[in-house]
Design goal:
The protein is built from 27 helices and no strands. By secondary structure, it is an all-alpha fold. The protein is globular. 47% of the residues are buried. The N terminus and C terminus are likely disordered.
Length: 506
């Protein structure tokens, strides 16, 4: 890294001015269609599940509490499998082909969902779309980072998350007007379009150089940068980075420079999911059907989806202006206040403990709220009736401000380069397995206790997030990778001393 940076900095200004980003943007757009499909498939259950547990559902597909819990959570198991598979495929067949391969489980999964005549088809289809989502989530950011140059890498690096939010918003908006089987058919379109476009896109120049294909790497980089771009300096820097990258040993993993950042990253991904973000997104309409809001649950979900998109845009603009810890503090505080409010509201109208009556799934059926809904529809909306919606919007905004994007950003900043592949795979696996656990448990907790107990758990986790930020997470804004690495090597304080790092490098 110490030699790579000067090489990039010495690039002449005239060369920079000759970069043409139009084809680079096209390549990024082609890839992030996979993230659109990922965001769409993740929240597919939100408008679909209420239709499968109602009294008018097809008897072959009608779900009880256990089936509904699996239908909502099995996606995350598929994502964990897809993420681990992508780690192997990225090195075996390359980043671009790994992204294209994700269309296979995605298409098969949506075909099973759209043509389901039994519950097992719904569960298998949901699992396969999760495999596709895990593959794209693991491969697309790597592909984008390797084809982008440093002037636009930060902006393009935020595209996967933004397009995933767009995908979720599209599902929320289409949910009230499109039959659930046709929602599955529509989900196949972005994946198929992604494959068609990626056929004409280049492979990663870094991947080609690692395979010893210098001429192909030069042609790929020239296609991405424009025909007037001098590729030699950038190719030399990439080649130097490849040549100097070593492998970590088990004994090295026991040293603070390795285990501390890995531990921080793993715990952050665990706490991120324990805040309840995945079950909230997956069961959003179900949650609103249990809340005394004055809007139909499908419309409220669409509003939350729009707020989530706005939140991601705000977070992207603040990422490099505010410190990482400042955003994490604000994120934890907003999530704590909103989940605490939701806890108190749900406690006042919580269901009594005990199993659900036969043929009724209290957490998933609208029938138990017909009386409340009719009462609210009879009169004008009140401020109290909007509190659950506003609190959920604040929770989503707080998550998108810090604990959503910064966990990914800190992973890329603190994980040692030589151990990044294994460590990032471990973090992603922990994240998805935690998401499965909390999403599967959410349905059972709501069915037995109402929303009160899950929201109370999320509130406690938000406090833990606040404490973990204060005690364990270092501030990395404005610090070089060498300074961050030196911090973990010395471990003296949680404030990196820039002057010492500069003096040591001099």
């Amino acid at each position: 890294m110490e030699e790579e940076t000067p090489l990039l900095n010495r690039r002449p200004t005239s060369t920079k001015s000759k970069i043409n980003n139009s084809k680079l943007f096209l390549a990024v757009f082609s890839a992030v269609l996979g993230n659109f499909s990922f965001g769409y498939s993740l929240v597919y259950t939100s408008p679909v599940l209420p239709q499968l547990v109602g009294s008018d559902a097809d008897p072959r597909l009608r779900m009880g509490t256990e089936q509904a819990a699996w239908f909502g959570s099995i996606y995350t198991l598929g994502a964990a499998a897809g993420g681990l598979g992508a780690m192997l495929l990225n090195d075996m067949i390359g980043r671009k082909l790994s992204i294209m391969m994700s269309a296979v489980p995605s298409t098969i999964g949506y075909m099973l969902l759209g043509g389901a005549v039994d519950i097992w088809m719904l569960l298998v289809g949901r699992f396969l779309t999760g495999v596709a989502g895990g593959m794209t989530a693991a491969s697309i950011p790597v592909y984008i980072s390797e084809i982008s140059h440093k002037a636009v890498r930060g902006a393009l690096g935020s595209c996967p998350q933004i397009t995933a939010v767009f995908g979720a918003l599209a599902l929320y908006v289409m949910g009230p007007v499109v039959p659930w089987r046709w929602l599955a058919v529509a989900g196949e379109v972005p994946a198929v379009l992604m494959v068609v476009l990626l056929v004409f896109m280049p492979s990663s120049p870094r991947r080609l150089l690692a395979l010893g294909r210098e001429q192909q790497a030069e042609r790929a980089l020239r296609w991405l940068r424009g025909k007037h771009y001098d590729t030699h300096i950038e190719l030399s820097a990439i080649q130097h980075s490849i040549n100097t990258q070593g492998k970590v040993t088990w004994s090295q993993l026991a040293t603070p420079i390795f285990y501390k950042p890995i531990l921080i990253s793993v715990v952050m991904r665990f706490l991120q999911q324990m805040t309840g973000i995945t079950p909230i997104l997956v069961f959003l309409e179900t949650i609103f059907s249990k809340s005394t809001i004055s809007l139909p649950p499908s419309y409220a979900a669409s509003i939350v989806g729009a707020v989530r998109l706005f939140s991601v845009a705000v977070a992207a603009s603040l990422m490099d202006k505010a410190g990482r810890k400042a955003l994490l503090y604000m994120s934890s505080l907003l999530m704590f206040l909103s989940s605490l409010t939701l806890t108190m509201i749900s406690h006042t109208s919580a269901f009594p403990p005990g199993p659900a009556p036969p043929n009724l799934t209290m957490s998933l059926d609208y029938s138990s709220h017909n009386a409340i809904g009719n009462t609210l529809d009879a009169g004008p909306p009140t401020a109290a009736a909007l509190i659950p919606l506003i609190s959920t919007m604040v929770f989503i905004f707080g998550y998108a401000l810090g604990w959503g994007p910064i966990t990914w950003l800190l992973m890329s900043e603190v994980l040692p380069l030589v151990a990044r592949g294994v460590a990032s795979g471990l973090c992603v696996t922990v994240s998805w397995l935690t998401a499965f656990m909390i999403t599967h448990a959410f349905t059972h907790l709501v069915d037995r206790y109402g929303l009160y107990v899950p929201y109370l758990c999320f509130t406690v986790v938000c406090v833990l997030c606040l404490l973990f930020t204060a005690v364990c997470i270092p501030e990395t804004r404005g610090r070089s990778l060498e300074e961050i690495e030196n911090y973990f090597r010395t471990g003296r304080t949680f404030t990196i001393n820039r002057s010492q790092s500069i003096a040591q490098s001099n």
